[in-house]
Amino acid sequence: MHRLRRLRVSETMRDMVRETRIDKSDLVYPMFVIEGENIRNPIDSMPGIYQYSIDRLDEELDRVKEAGVHAVLLFGIPAHKDEVGSEAYNDEGVTQRAIRHMKKRMPELLVIADVCLCEYTSHGHCGLVCGGEILNDETLPLLAKMSVSLAKAGADVIAPSDMMDGRVAAIREALDENGFCNTMIMAYSAKFASGFYGPFREAAHSAPSFGDRKTYQMDPANRKEAIRECLSDIEEGTDVIMVKPALSYLDVLREVADRTDYPLAAYNVSGEYSMVKAAAANGWIDEKKIVMEIMTGIKRAGAKIIITYHALDVAKWLSE
Ligand code: PBG
Question: From the CB of 270, is ligand 1 less than 6 Å away?
Fold first, then answer.
């Protein structure tokens, strides 16, 4: 008689046949840096996550180091927003200064810089707006300019999250022309127009002032189109592809993993984090057990890299 339970008789046995493992090197921790002084603002909907001003960033960097996480994804929140997102490509902008500070303080830390205009525009959309329409081609030079500015500040990886068509090619060309041929691109390739970004928009002050993002972010119903998005970013020269959010899109992750040979990242987004934190705070779930199961699920679905607000906790649990 077949007895699959033989594989489960002891922890040692289970450990030996385990197919999926989480490693600290898989984790990317998102960080929010805000213009100003002496700021450590809690994000109400994301317990444990804060906005820091640059002068207090070291507190957070120390926590990252102590946990043993090697990569962060940085979001900047400027004091001044305008129609064209000028602060996004200002070499002295808050994000650029934060990157310089981080690379000086922790040179070995891999700094991934999010590229998108929504935190920097007064209308909160990810591209230029004209007559209520989000413009594509006119936005590309600004994204390219922002990428070069962030690379100049010391970013190791440029992560465009805007979902404009053709942005990977435009950014790659601009980086190469400016001597940043080793700066990597991690494209948010299949990014869905999701309700799970709600808490992030509070954290990054990036909610659109009118309409929604459905004309540029993907329809949650589309799996085949997600493959096309990934393949087209690969063709344009991305180094890493991403599916976002993670949990309602594990099938997309699996299919992209099967259909491509590129390193695949999954973004375990703000709403996914908030749901876990809220249930845990009520004592309804065992946070550690559930978070580790979520991480395992994302990795088993085919992701190599996991961007998650749980990163520091996961790293600590892995060391216990
Ligand atoms: C910016 C951006 C968003 C997220 C990452 N980059 C928000 C959005 O597209 O509205 C979401 C991250 C999260 O929810 O954790 N475009």
Answer: yes
Give the residue whose CA is nearest to atom 14 of ligand 1. 197
DSSP one-letter string for 2-35:
--GGGGGSSHHHHHHH------GGGEEEEEEEES
191 tagged catalytic:
yes
Instruction: Label each residue of 84-127 as H, E or C.
Output: CCHHHHCCCCHHHHHHHHHHHHCCCCEEEEEECCCCCECCCCCC
pLDDT computed for residue 121 by the predictor: 96
pLDDT number for residue 168: 98
How far apart are alpha carbons 300 and 20 in whole angstroms?
A: 6
- Residue 9 in any domain: the answer is no
Residue nearest to atom 6 of ligand 1 (CA): 161
151: CB partners within 8 A, 6+ apart: 158, 175, 178, 180, 183
**Residues with pLDDT less than 70, the chain:** none
Is 118 near ligand 1, meaning CB less than 6 Å away? yes
Give me the pLDDT at residue 18, please. Answer: 98
Query: Atom 7 in ligand 1: which residue has the minimum CA distance?
Result: 197
Range of the domain at 301: 20-319
Q: Could you tell me the CATH number of the domain that includes residue 205? A: 3.20.20.70
Asked if residue 70 belongs to a domain, the reply is: yes
How far is it, in rounded angstroms, from Cα 305 to Cα 196?
Answer: 19
pTM above 0.90, yes or no: yes
Q: Is 108 a member of any domain?
A: yes
What pLDDT score does 138 carry? Answer: 97
In a domain, 1, yes or no: no
Q: How many domains does the chain have?
A: 1
